[in-house]
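So, could you explain the following?
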Amino acid sequence: MKKQELTHQQSAIINSSGDLRINAVAGSGKTTTIIEYAASRPANARILYLAFNKSVKLEAVRKFSDYGLTNTKVETAHSLAYKHIVFQHNYKVKAQGYKISEICQLLGIRGNGEKHAEFVIANHINKFVTYFCNSDKAKVQDLNYLDTMVDVNAKAFVKSFYKFIEDGTRVLLAKMDRGEIEITHDFYLKKFQLSNPALPYDYILFDEAQDASAAMLDVFKKQKATKVIVGDTHQQIYSWRHAVNSLDKTDFDTLQLSSSFRFTQDIANLATEIISWKNHLFECKPVAIDGKGTGKREVVKATIARTNLGLLLNAIDFITDNSKVKHIYFEGNISSYMYADDGASLYDVLSLYNGNHDRIRDQLVGSMKDIDDLEEYVEKTEDHQLATMIEIVREYGNEVHGIIKSLKELHTGDEDRSKAEMIFSTVHRSKGMEYDVVYLVNDFLSEGKLKDLKEKHKNDKSGAFDVARLNEEINLLYVAITRTRNKLHIPEALVPKDFPASSQIIKVKTRESNPEYNSFSSEKKSGSKQSPATKKQIVKPKEKAYTVIQRRETNKDAYKPWTPEQDYELKEIYDNGTPISRIAAHLGRTKGAVISRLKKLNHYFDDL
């Protein structure tokens, strides 16, 4: 295989010796560097490359094979643990994890009089198991599960039942350990870590270390092999899965990969500006990125959102504003956006919303009296997936079926992904991907919002101003921006003040600021506004086909996610006695959406 010309930084890494930490910016060719590093080791050296996930593993296997490196083994943390633990103990693995209702049955959890207490407790036991399995601790008692909590209601519930939740966590783990029940993927990773394995390798290359589990980091650090850890601190976006930035937890010699071959200097400058926002949170060391990309193609286009809700909304925009579209594609498959990890579906939540309990398949959702009941459960559990489904159902109501049907009809399979006129992805699902053109949804944290939050909470010691979470919010925008190879369409609210104009960075006037602008174009539409009747029908039944579009033309923020700032403003003007109709007009919402939000905030009074 012909070698490509290497940079001075890559050469320094390849010629290094001893344990090494590599800070690699997005698109810096770290995989190429790792392969060259492996190729430069002795021919009889035993090398292990730890990939971030299965898809990265498969791609790495191909690349190492093409290079002729037969002495390099490619694994993920879980595939490595699986081979050492599952076969040895003859365990059976529960592929999809346990549903909350199953945990209730396994542990015999029953209600104590408090509404849905058994399900809430089971939910927290499930999360505590995940927290423990991904930690480097030896005992459940070594962790404080409350450290993971943010929501006040959820924290209050857990405090009341902490001993019961902790004991349930230990019992569930013990049942898996004894093989009485199927084990989860996280369990065999934990079992692997606690077995203190001595891996038979001379070199271990640990990739995407900024989002590694503490359990796998513990295994890695204890090995006698020469260790190389690679990652980008500013791409850490999985702390909600209890991932840790392993780069900060090693004291190896450090080398840099600061040249990106993916994008140009203009994109690099924007990315570094976004990173500099972290100075509003803490002192952040300046980052230098040398953009060496020369991409000119505009073939593969992707829309990237921070949230599932934001992505769904923009997918609807796209197929209605572009009636000739034949193919779209969702990273991770569109169905993955409709189901929670524990099995509940968007359709279950919709059936609950309509009072059709006989159509609900999920036992937990089916046990709820109504949608408000489910929302109360969510507040006690911090179940973000169910929370998103509730928000979608509250915003779209019975149009959900038609919307999803329309999106599925246009969705192409993995084998025809290249035919898609637009790829849709959340930031998390776009990790490791790159596209010719990227369109960002306007649901990311802006610098203005960050400053406002800091000012609002400057004297607040309650923890509401969560520095770690806000740091990760900035990382999400950085990751999204750096997926592009050529052009970036970015909402103007997300562009740093006084950032210079660029032919590759197109500032988009979103619908919020000008309803005559298409969210997927920087140019104003010519002629009069398109009539809803001429737009592509996206929902059934027919008489409701254009409800979403019509409402958003008259109410600019209809069906948009509510932000904390809007919630605050809503309560303020409502408390001042402003009529609902005027509030709706002011906020660009429908009256129904305003009332629904006030109820969700426990701030609506029927007699007013």
